[in-house]
Amino acid sequence: MSRRIHLSLALLIVGIFVIACGSTHALSVRMTQANNGSQITLHPGDTLDVALVGNPTTGYTWEVRPGAEAVLTQKSAPEFKADSTRIGAGGMMTFRFECVAAGAVTLLLIYHRSFESGVAPLKTFAIKVNAVKK
Fold first, then answer.
1. Percent with pLDDT over 70 in the chain
2. How far apart are the C-alpha atoms of 107 and 51, rounded to whole Å?
3. DSSP 3-state helix, strand, coil percentages of the chain (rounded to 5)?
4. pLDDT over 80 (residue 12)
5. CA–CA separation, 82 vs 75, rounded Å?
6. CA-to-CA distance for 76 and 30, rounded, in angstroms?
7. Which one, of 25, 19, 64, lies nearest residue 44 by Cα?
8. Is 37 helix (H, G, I), strand (E, B) or coil?
9. 63 close to 18: Cβ distance less than 8 angstroms
10. What is the pLDDT of residues 90-104, one digit of tens each?
């Protein structure tokens, strides 16, 4: 009987250890214009997708402003998915970032025409990212 209790207790401890170790999975978070001005906590290894409405056929495009590179690395070029197959259709532009280090930064994107200098962006998107180690 005592042996069964010890075995059960050992299995319980191993189970708790496995569950605790399994909680290190990376998180994937998606944010939109509705999250503008908000704050988020991430961990190194997490993925952050930022999806913003835009229409590059008008000359306007979303651009990531420098300043968050120490914590967030852009994983690829932004993806644009049109709302329809019509020529000139607007749609959703998605940026994908990976959290690569702990720290606090502001991620800033601007919607502007890159060929117009001295003109304020039409829209901005900013979030505060607090990245902490697990």
1. 82
2. 13
3. 20, 40, 40
4. no
5. 21
6. 16
7. 25
8. coil
9. no
10. 999 999 999 999 999
Domain boundaries, the chain: 26-131
For the domain with range 26-131, which CATH number is right: 2.60.40.2020, 3.90.550.10, 2.60.40.10, 1.25.40.10?
2.60.40.2020
Q: What is the rounded distance in angstroms from the CA atom of residue 20 to the CA atom of residue 51? A: 32
User: What whole-number distance in Å separates Cα of residue 113 and Cα of residue 121?
Assistant: 8
Residue 127 has a CB neighbour count (10 Å cut-off) of: 19
Q: Residue 123 half-sphere exposure, CB side, CA atoms within 13 Å? A: 14
Residue among 33, 62, 80, 55 nearest 121 (CA)? 62
Outline where the chain has alpha helix (H).
2-22
Residue 2: per-residue pLDDT: 58
Q: What pLDDT is recorded for position 110?
A: 98
pLDDT at 7 over 80: no
